[in-house]
Design goal:
One of its GO terms (biological process) is negative regulation of DNA-templated transcription. By secondary structure, the protein is an alpha+beta fold. Helices cover 39% and strands 20% of the residues. It contains nine helices and eight strands.
């Protein structure tokens, strides 16, 4: 009988409900590669996945056969050409709108407030996508509008997590340090006196800031409990966008 692992593997700790354990474990081998990894040894793969080396070797045999993994001359393992082939298909069919809008709609349904997706554009920020609150009283920013980087919760997030802007000397440096520490920014009247905002960062797969998810609220309806929903929405989008 196979030995029972003393420490639960990352695949078993987050197994797909109704899924196949062997598939979960094979995919966990793929997931432990990071952007800084050219190749990984058998020991590194076993340590990162918390699987026995014998199990890793069996999984690698199948992944190599399907060209998801390739074994290099030095004995280490790298991602294989099948990853590049599917990435090309994914890139050609990828629609940012199809990824972002459902998340914004869910955020609006949860909070009852307007949700937006902001990206940096030069020295400003662009409201790329927006889903309006069902309330008649709301702010009236539209997709395509340009807003300042140095005011408003979305602009503060894009600035704070930018490696250059967020660390540049200036009067707001302490604020940006706190934003990076907290992982979000909530403020009343930072851009307009009658509007409150809650924003959280969306990160690319490389770990850089890609966008800000922002909830805008009339001051009289501001609810700090909505921070959780905003951060959850940003987390859902992180690593799925470029």
């Amino acid at each position: 009988m196979p030995r029972k692992a003393v420490t639960e593997s990352i695949a078993d700790a987050d197994a797909a409900q109704g899924g196949v354990a062997a598939v979960d474990r094979a995919l966990s081998l793929m997931s432990v590669f990071t952007s800084s990894d050219h190749a990984l040894s058998l020991r590194e793969l076993a340590e990162r996945t918390r699987l026995y080396k014998s199990t890793v070797l069996r999984l690698l045999a199948s992944l190599e056969h399907a060209q998801w993994i390739q074994r290099l001359e030095d004995g280490r393992y790298a991602l294989g050409p099948e990853v590049a082939r599917l990435h090309g298909i994914y890139s050609a069919s990828f629609s940012l709108e199809r990824v972002v809008i459902p998340v914004l709609r869910e955020l609006v349904a949860t909070t009852g407030e307007s949700a937006a997706y902001h990206v940096r554009q030069g020295d400003a920020r662009l409201c790329l996508y927006r889903v309006d609150s069902p309330h008649p009283v709301r702010d009236h920013i539209r997709a395509g509008d340009l807003l300042p980087l140095d005011r408003g919760s979305g602009g503060r997030i894009l600035t704070a997590f930018d490696d250059i802007l967020g660390n540049a000397p200036g009067p707001d440096q302490e604020l940006y340090r706190k934003i990076r520490s907290d992982g979000y920014f909530a403020a009343i009247g930072d851009r307009l006196s009658e509007v409150a905002g809650i924003s959280a960062p969306v990160f690319s797969a490389a770990g850089t800031i890609a966008a800000a998810v922002t909830l805008t609220v009339p001051v009289h309806r501001y609810n700090p409990a909505h921070v959780t929903a905003v951060r959850r929405a940003a987390s859902q989008l992180s690593s799925r966008v470029g």
